[in-house]
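Re: weekly structure request thread

Next one in the queue (148 aa):
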Amino acid sequence: MKHTTTPRTRRGRGPARRIGRTLALVLPVVLVLSGTLAVARVNWSGAPSNSVLAASSGEVSTRASSRAPQDMLRDRLLLELQEKDPGTALTHLQQAVNGRPSLAKHCVAIARALGRAAVRVYGPSRAQSYARPVCDTSFASGVAAQHG
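Done, posted below.
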């Protein structure tokens, strides 16, 4: 005595198969969204911030946004030149340019400013003694320009 007339096959009809297909469609979407949110939450600027997306925050101070990195570097190195010596400032200029290649286009102007400041602080002959080939000897040309 047979109760069914058609043979039963489990291909494509079971609950495990449906769950697998659903996961295959939903899981990549979930992974992409969670990855995107994780990247958006990372503070890429290096500055401490409480906001989730610091770049989109409307509370950026105008003073901080108006100061370019090369201006902050120049001011820091000029202060260091006065407190220590031009050699230390030139070493730190070279390290800053090596660490951030985007500063290379400003290296000549910063080195000349250091040369002019060194003449004011140390006099022309002593300032020239600190000259070295940082940024194509721009420090030395700054010394010469201030002295001459």
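Confidence is low (pLDDT under 50) at residues 51-62. The longest helix spans residues 15-41.
Next request, please.
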